[in-house]
Amino acid sequence: MKYRRLGSTGLHVSVIGLGTWQFGGEWGREYTQEEADAILDKGQELGINLIDTAECYGDHLSESLIGDYISRRKREDWIIATKFGHHFHERFTRTDSFDAAGVVAQLDASLKALRTDYIDLYQFHSGPDQAFDNDELWTTLDKQIEAGKIRFLGTSIGSNDNLHQTEASSRVNARAIQVVYNRLDRAPEERVFPSCQQQDLGVLARVPLASGYLSGKYKPGAVFGDTDVRHRHDKESTRLKLLEVEHIQREEVPQGIAMASWALAWCLKHPAVTAVIPGCKDPEQVEANAKAVDLIAEPHPQDVG
Fold first, then answer.
1. What are the helix (H) ranges across 9-122?
2. Residues of the chain with pLDDT under 50
3. Domain NADP-dependent oxidoreductase, which positions (predicted)?
4. What pLDDT shows up at residue 286?
5. Which residues pair with 143 in a beta bridge?
6. Residue among 177, 245, 257 nearest 211 (CA)
7. Count of CB atoms within 10 A of residue 29's CB?
């Protein structure tokens, strides 16, 4: 495994993280504690130390599965990133909640679910600029840092070209940006990444496999069940993306290299990107994701020993 410095936090995170939205039950299956344990155990075995989750992945369900696991392991072995700002009601249904008092209640609920005294990276989760520009929110969060409940703040931008929230990071004491970035969606390269580099912000690339489309497993015309979040994607847009994936696989992916590993390594080669946080449905996918490290030969500005 390779490790990089997460911006000015000083945290050393594995370049491959564990995305855990799937633990909340919106990707077509429910997870038992044993299944979650197996995924997290495989991650640790491979040197992965970064877990990304959120309060709205199944009403703290993802956090609870992680928390049960962490309670039986060494907490200091893991860097846990979670998020705030949404209340989960039922599958695919959430409401926003970014007021300062409500966020403190969400934080306490996340700490309880994760069975930990502190969160390493607490992220503003895809909220509107109006909610982001609330000084009371950030003052309240700074007090939670002083209280030891949070180590560092970050922002998970909803639009991957949200320069407003990215540029305001230093002002609100956020040290990292999470953004959609993959071979099919390169928008952050234009404005967001240069701002991140200028401010020394860590960058977590989410959806690095484009919701699994860049895994190479799906062909144009693929159908997803109604319990899978991809069922909600525009069908024509999905068809066009999968046609593009076929072209990329044919023209850009070297023979003998798994497309998923190539796609993750592609993201990690950008000088602004600290880590990718792909989802993984089983230990085999964790192992496949980790193989992307073997495809990264060039030194990176954030590499650490």
1. 33-45, 61-70, 100-114
2. none
3. 16-294
4. 96
5. none
6. 245
7. 14
Query: Amino acid identity of 157?
Result: I
pLDDT of residue 90: 63
* 3-class SS of residue 68: helix
- Give the integer Cα–Cα distance in Å for 241 and 246: 9
- Of 218, 225, 227, 297, nearest to 259 (Cα)? 218
Q: Sheet harboring 3-5: ordered strands across?
A: 12-14, 3-5, 303-304
Q: At what angle do helices 100-114 and 61-70 cross, to 10 degrees?
A: 40
Q: How many Cβ atoms are within 10 Å of 179's Cβ, its own excluded?
A: 26
Span 3-304: which CATH code?
Answer: 3.20.20.100
Task: Quote the CA–CA distance of 163 and 32 in Å, as a whole number.
Answer: 39
The residue among 274, 254, 289, 287 whose CA lies nearest residue 5 is 274
pLDDT attached to residue 21: 83
Q: Residue 118 in contact with residue 153, Cβ under 8 Å?
A: no
Pairing of strands 150-156, 119-125: parallel
